[in-house]
Input
Amino acid sequence: MFPFATLLPPDWPTGQVTLLGDAIHLMPPTGGIGANTTMRDASLLTRQVIAVATGQRDLVEAINGYEVEMREYGAAAVRSALTTLRQGLNTNPVKLTGTRVFFRVCRAIAPLRRVSFRDYWARHTRPRPWEESSSTAVTPARWATGD
Output
């Protein structure tokens, strides 16, 4: 095994270039969290670029808005991925046995599985206002028509 450490990037001055996905969120490949975070980055950055293209925001202001949001949910995703990694690398035989029994019981009893895991992702993936109000979002189709 190798030790895996990650650093949260320091704040940097906003400019006309930014990062998303694996370029900014260094995390272990556990639980698909990195891929999901990349998709979330792309969605938010797309909304910001559309706002610039429609004249609603200045480019640097839009990138700054993206980076502020991305740092918050990105840091939470990195912490969650590291926690999941550490749980998976556990070598204590008692803890390993307990974990295996728990997952087997959850697999066999659907209501227990639903109760045990329904809020797992919600801790760091709660929808942002821009994700909840998709009907009012500026989409490429609305951009083209000027609506």
Q: What stands out?
A: Helices lie at 33-53, 59-88, 93-108, 110-117, 122-125, 129-132, 140-145. Residues 135-147 have pLDDT under 50 and may be disordered.
